[in-house]
Each structure stands twice: as structure tokens, then as C-alpha cells.
Amino acid sequence: MTDQSRMTIYDRRESQVRSYCRSFPVEFTAGRNATLTDAEGREYIDFLAGCSSLNYGHNDPDMKAALIDHVSRDGIAHGLDMHTDAKTAFLEAFERLILRPRGMEHKVMMTGPTGTNAVEAAMKLARKVTGRETIVAFTNGFHGMTMGALAATGNAGKRAGGGMALHGVVRMPYEGAMEGVDSLAMIEAMLENPSSGIDKPAALLVEPVQGEGGLNAASADFLRGLKRLADKHGALLIADDIQAGIGRTGTFFSFEGMDVVPDLIPLAKSLSGMGLPFAALLLRPDLDIWKPAEHNGTFRGNQHAFVTARIALEKFWADDTFAKEVQGKGEFLGRRLSEIATLIPGARLKGRGMMRGIDVGSGEMAEAICATCFEHGLVIETSGAHDEVVKVLAPLTIPEAQLARGLDIIESAVRAQLGNGTPMAAE
């Protein structure tokens, strides 16, 4: 059966809302670390990694073995929020390996299974704690597709899908969003002016690195400034670390080393370790004012994800070896992308760590580069307000030689678009 005939069932039965498959029109059948294989046996280097849901790659053998063992012994498959051995083991590992070493006293709230659920819980709790409605969100921010998180999302196309007015959010400029404007000073002036028209906020909701918004990376000064303003105005700082966290920038949290500890931290994507749905909200203990079941969900706490998440923590975060490896790969990625950017007039490097890309100046060029990459064995996507950024989200566990091959494909695709080269294949 050919890829073309396989596609007919999708055309016949799957909703038109599908998107990634339009850019990558093959049927994938296997994945291992940073390599995908399609139904025809062709291999691809994966620079998408489930939009940072597969930071540890496809089918990590230790996580896979633990999950198979759990299922084989009839381990709990679904437990609502009841106590289970899998949850106990995860929480103990998370406390021991992540929270305590960082001096964080945050509690862990299990939410629904995706990132938008964690963001919704954070916004809802901030409003409950403060008694206020307004959430300050930022230009180019992306926080999810359910109605509350969608209100905090900037993208006009995504917001239009809501089909109604989105309330309770005011927008401020992210750092560097407006040329010549000090975003932090502007936010401070607006919050302190009683005639600015902005009600006292419940929270400031920010991505330390904006994933879908174009890999804009906030500085330590900006994040500290937001925390200072939040504290001053009786609001909470919510750091959405769903895409930028779990090692993506070289540390477990993307704000580490910046001398700022957010009040609320939504996590998801790679939290499970191997792509299983799992989201959680970290919250300061004094903010934990929920009544039992006041915020709940049938799939709060994926039992299978508890198993794989624990293995991920113990395998990759017991010491600083993995973090140093990621930081080294991030430096290499930054150097190579900077070199490639010099080929394109006006192009520039974006992002931080292993969450980087090239702003090539137009969505048309970025889309063409990514399409050429796919033709030659590399799965990669765009981001940004105009889809102008060629975005690299390779698994953090990718071998350096494979990372270099993927970057070679990007470079040759860029040269081909500029008319001075022929694209190379993955192998």
C-alpha cells in the first residue's frame, strides 16, 4: 500500500483541522531517539520532537521497559487522584531530584493531561487567590487552545477559532517586541497609572522563551522585573514552562540561574518523559487554597506517565551530567545556526539552549526552507507571528553527529532557496 492510498482514510474521515500532517504527508510507523521511519522504510531526522514533548527522544529504552513492566503486572491504569504506587514514586523523585535541590517548596497539582489544562488551572487559581479577574499576558504569547488559555494567547488565527469574545486578559509588549521601547518600563508605567484603564491584575503570565511566538527569549532582568512588579501590585507571576522547560534550555526550568522563582509554573509536554499526556501546575504552598475537587478532571495524573516520568527524572536529573551535555549541544546549535544565518541578508539567531532557530525574514522563505528540509529527510517546522522562524526542537538526547547532519540539511536548503546550492539528504 502506498503513502497516497493511506492518505485516503484521513481525507475521508479526519477533520480538516489537522495541520502537521499537511507539512509532513507520509505515514510514520516507528521512532527511536531522533529518528523517525515512515511506511516506506525511509528515515528522517526529527527536529520537531512533538513540539518539545519528546525531549528525551522517541521510545527511550528504560522508560519503555518500565512502562511495559507496569502494564504487564496489571499496574493501576487509571486512578483519578487516588493514591497509587506510581504516583508516590513520581512525587518522591520529583521532590528529591527537582524541587529540593533548587530550594523550591512548591506543591504539585495534577491537572488535565495537556498544557492548556495547566495554564487554565494557574489562571483560575490566581483569580481565586487575589479576587481579581485581569491577567496580563504578552505579545506573541501562546498558552493553549481552551477558552481561558486562548484569551491569553496572542495569535489572531488561533483566537479566531474561539468563535466569541475572549475576556479577562490585557496584552503587554514582551521584551524586545517594540523597537526602541523598554517593555518593562512601559508595563510598570501602565500598572502604576490609575488612569491607564488596566485593572489591578491577578497575575502576569509569561513564557521565559516563547515557543510558538518566534523563540523570543526573556532576559533575567526582564523576568526579575516582572516578579518585582507582580509582588508590588499584589499579583502572581505565572511562568509557562510547558515548551521551554524540562531541560530544553539546558536546565530543568528555563528560568534557572536568573534569580527568580515564579509563584505558579505550568508544566506539560516532556514532563512524562516519552510523549504520554501529563500536565501539572507547581504552586507555592500558601497559594494552595483549593477546596477538595474544586478544580478536577477525569484524567488528572496519568498513571502510565507517572511511571515514565519517574524514570526520566532518575536517569537524566540525578546529577548535572545531562544538563551539561544539553548545554554543550545548545552552544554547538547556536554556533551553526549563526553561521547559517549569515547566508541570508537580515536573518538572525533566536532562542536559547536547544530551543533555537533562525528568523529568515518572511514566512514564505521559512516555509520553503522547511519543505525542502523534509524532502531531504529532516522534519522541522516554523514559528513566529508570520511563521518567519525556522525552529529547531531536536530531542535533547540526539547524537551530536546526527544533530550536525540535520543542520547540514538546513544549510543546504537555505543555499538552495538562495539559488547557490543543491540540498543534501539525511544520509
What does this structure look like?
The protein has two domains: 3-60 and 320-418, Aspartate Aminotransferase, domain 1 (Alpha-Beta Complex), CATH 3.90.1150; 75-316, Type I PLP-dependent aspartate aminotransferase-like (Major domain) (Aspartate Aminotransferase, domain 2), CATH 3.40.640.10. It has a four-stranded mixed sheet with strand order 1-2-3-15. Strands 6-5-7-10 form a four-stranded parallel sheet, sandwiched between helices. It has helices spanning 3-13, 20-23, 49-52, 61-72, 85-99, 115-130, 147-151, 156-160, 183-192, 220-232, 303-316, 321-341, 363-375, 400-418; strands at residues 28-32, 35-38, 43-46, 107-110, 135-138, 169-172, 203-206, 209-210, 216-217, 236-239, 264-267, 280-283, 348-352, 355-359, 378-379, 381-383, 389-392. Helix 4 packs antiparallel against helix 11 (303-316), helix 5 packs parallel to helix 11 (303-316) and helix 12 packs parallel to helix 14 (400-418). It contains 14 helices and 17 strands. The protein is globular and about 55 Å long. With 427 residues, it is α/β, with parallel strands linked by helices.
Give the gist of this structure.
The protein has 2 domains: 3-60 and 320-418, Aspartate Aminotransferase, domain 1; 75-316, Aspartate Aminotransferase, domain 2 (3-Layer(aba) Sandwich). The chain is 38% helix and 15% strand. The protein is built from 14 helices and 17 strands.
